[in-house]
């Protein structure tokens, strides 16, 4: 297993540029856990605000673009994903696919989350170049529109709304990915000796007013999965779960993971697998 985790971590590559500013090293003294009353009040207030925003969720606009992209013949091979891409439910079928990934795909000989699988289909079936997709896979604050891959993931995710998460952990390949993801989550490194579990490995933790879910529990894992892909109100951009994993690495001061890498797929297998049996509500609103 140690060789597995080393292989997964080797999939991480440093992406150009140092941080604009060197952050101050945080205090090693653990913050006092908030009282239940304070925590509940903050949580309920934000949930009320989020519920109001969900009534006019901008994610629908990205879903519509994704639907068009899914059905349109594109790329050097001039074929559509609808007629060539199998997300695990059969070629072109999207209903329930998102909540059953990550899963193992024999044609790629890899465990893939939804985004990684769609990228694979764009490359192998439509003829796009991976490097071109990976140059800018996520929407930035100054971008007028989201990348095609974000729209496609949003479209696919929407077709799993109100379905139970069912990552096939009984598949030996998926179980192996889950176990490696679990080890990566616990792996401490970087200038602050952080790991994913530093923030998300226990109950009662928070940063400022943001409660941090315990990803090792079903309910905590669900909070980590729910609402992705999501429309982020800070910046007004649509982002995917792959982006969220990369941002966690950034906050740990780790090298950024390579786009659509094994490491991210394994982490998502661990997190999403822990949420099995919970209901996924579809693309949502994020801070």
Describe this structure in words.
Helix 1 packs across helix 7, helix 4 (114-124) packs across helix 6 and helix 10 packs across helix 11. It contains 11 helices and 9 strands. The strands form 4 sheets. It has a 3-stranded mixed β-sheet, with helices on both faces. Strands 1-2 form a two-stranded antiparallel sheet. Strands 3-8 form a two-stranded antiparallel ribbon. The chain has one domain: Orthogonal Bundle (Cytochrome Bc1 Complex, Chain D, domain 2). A hairpin with a 4-residue loop joins strand 1 and strand 2. With 287 residues, it is mainly α. It has helices at 2-10, 36-54, 59-71, 114-124, 130-135, 148-158, 172-186, 196-200, 218-225, 241-251, 262-274, and strands at 103-105, 110-112, 163-164, 205-207, 210-212, 227-232, 237-239, 279-280, 283-286.
């Amino acid at each position: 297993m140690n060789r597995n985790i080393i292989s997964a971590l080797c999939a991480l590559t440093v992406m150009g540029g140092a941080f604009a500013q060197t952050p101050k090293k945080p205090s090693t003294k653990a913050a006092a856990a908030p009282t239940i009353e304070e925590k509940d009040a903050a949580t309920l207030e934000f949930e009320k605000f989020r519920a109001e925003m969900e009534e006019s969720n901008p994610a629908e606009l990205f879903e519509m673009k994704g639907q068009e992209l899914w059905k349109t013949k594109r790329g050097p091979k001039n074929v559509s994903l609808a007629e060539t891409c199998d997300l695990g439910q059969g070629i072109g079928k999207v209903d329930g696919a998102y909540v059953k990934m990550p899963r193992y795909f024999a044609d790629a000989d890899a465990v893939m989350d939804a985004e990684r699988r769609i990228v694979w289909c764009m490359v192998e079936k439509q003829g796009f170049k991976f490097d071109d997709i990976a140059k800018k896979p996520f929407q930035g604050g100054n971008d007028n529109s989201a990348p095609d891959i974000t729209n496609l993931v949003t479209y696919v995710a929407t077709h799993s709304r109100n379905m139970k998460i069912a990552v096939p952990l009984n598949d030996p390949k998926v179980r192996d990915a889950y176990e490696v993801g679990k080890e990566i989550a616990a792996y401490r490194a970087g200038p602050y000796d952080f790991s994913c579990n530093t923030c998300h490995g226990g109950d009662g933790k928070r940063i400022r007013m943001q409660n941090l879910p315990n990803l090792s529990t079903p309910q905590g894992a669900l909070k980590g999965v729910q609402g992705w892909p999501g429309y982020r109100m800070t910046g007004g951009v649509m982002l995917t779960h792959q982006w969220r994993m990369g941002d966690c690495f950034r906050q740990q001061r780790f090298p950024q993971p390579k786009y659509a890498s094994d490491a991210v797929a394994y982490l998502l297998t661990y997190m999403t697998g822990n949420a099995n049996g919970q209901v996924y509500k579809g693309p949502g609103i994020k801070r």
